[in-house]
Amino acid sequence: MKLKELIAKCKVVRIHGNDSVEVKNITSDSREVESGSLFIAVEGINTDGHDYIAKAIEQDVLVVIYDKPMFEEYFSRVTYVQVEDSSLALAQIASMWFGNPSEHLKLVGVTGTNGKTTVATLLYDMFKELGYATGLLSTVANYVNNEKYATTHTTLDPISLNSLLSKMVDKGCEYAFMEVSSHAIHQNRVYGLSFVGGIFTNLSQDHLDYHKNMMEYRDVKKSFFDTLNDDSFALVNADDKNGEFMLQNTKAMKKFYSIKGMADFKARIFEKHFDGTEIEINNKDLIVQFVGDFNVYNILAVYGAAVLLGQNEEEILKVLSILKPVSGRFETLRSSSGITVIIDYAHTPDALTNVLQSIHGVLNQEGEIITVVGTGGNRDRTKRPIMAREAVRMSSKVVLTSDNPRFEEPQEIINDMVAGLDYKQKLTTLTIVDRREAIKVAITMAKPGDVVLIAGKGHEDYQDVRGVKHHFDDKEEVEKIFKVLD
């Protein structure tokens, strides 16, 4: 594709060279540069692409896009394009390179602290069940119809993202559902994509290692809704205090869902069990295979979005009754002796509280809760003592352990958690660095009728230790222990 076509939507400051050159491929990674490449230098969190422009030129780059004026000399064989913002240019060029695929899909973005994966995945499952070719972009996996692609981030970089959206178009997908993280919004990874709808689940403390404070985190989420056009819908959780705030400047059609008050999509909860919940949605009764109030909110968001996308309400309810939980999200395992283990991805204080409340709601004081939990390394440290306090407050016993320590010492992370506990709380708390041993001890302590919650990693099948991912799967560990015990 010709350079001038690729940069047609970019805010160009100046061009030095030929804007009619034929570009063979695009990249923001200097290691992928080859003859005929267009290299976009973007300043990231840890590295700055501008530092690799010289390397790209050595590798026979054709075009360099940048936003920091920094050239003292130009190579005649290279075309240099200075833009106002490289991250915006990357998103615009990536979309143009792949033929603006989001414009050929009914793309719905899901944002919020908790519930993004469940809502996006259930929408994908529902629309497949309704007979549509559908795509999914999520934390757990990316799908182009039934074909699975590995995922590295909640929301991919613009080139990978548009590449997958393009594959969806090529495979005849009509709908696509994607998680939209605050990082992705802030870094313009979803800039310029055409969304037919946006969903807001909730907002609670997370990512304060990245965002300056909760206000900035909230404002970044809101900015996603600010970009929706008047042909789209914005569906928000009315029971979250930030729901209304998200809609202040959106042009989209505003819709609400709620359990507590009046809303466009309203649910009531009747009976709670570990294998499902009896509910009512807009005066229609149904049983869903999900547990906990937080999951009823997720189900409501899915129902509302499907209605807003024009699907038949009776058909939506039928499909909701057969949908199953997402891997690692309140996933229930039972031993023959009557011990229940729940594996959940809860890695924020609010998510942990929601899961524990849901377990209490089903147990109804019949049986104890033993919680195994840790927090990730090189992430928001302020949530560590809060998560420990919540775990102890709502559990009979707690085992603090390692999560993904990354480049921190696991014991130091646990010490940060323990710092949130008083003397009495520490008496009901064990600290075991080895996660495998922690899970084994927790299950061994449990009696028939008790529930063991293993929180934090959910679907993940690895532990990230000093940059190396070692195989580790909470579910596999539980199944091994059950075999020995049974």
N- to C-terminal separation? 63 Å
Beta-strand percentage range: 15-25%
Which range best describes the helical content: under 10%, 10-25%, 25-40%, 40-55%, 55-70% or over 70%? 25-40%
How many E strands? Answer: 24
CATH C-level class of the largest domain: Alpha Beta
The CATH topology name of the largest domain reads UDP-N-acetylmuramoyl-L-alanine:D-glutamate ligase
What can you tell me about this protein's structure?
By secondary structure, this protein is of the alpha/beta class. The chain contains 16 helices and 24 strands. Strands 9-8-7-10-6-11-12-13-14-15-16 form an eleven-stranded mixed β-sheet, with helices on both faces. Strands 17-18-22-19-20-21 form a six-stranded mixed β-sheet, with helices on both faces. The protein has a five-stranded mixed β-sheet with strand order 1-5-4-3-2. Helix 3 runs parallel beside helix 5, helix 4 crosses helix 9 (293-308) and helix 11 (349-363) packs parallel to helix 12 (383-393). The longest helix has 16 residues, at 293-308. The mean pLDDT is 94.
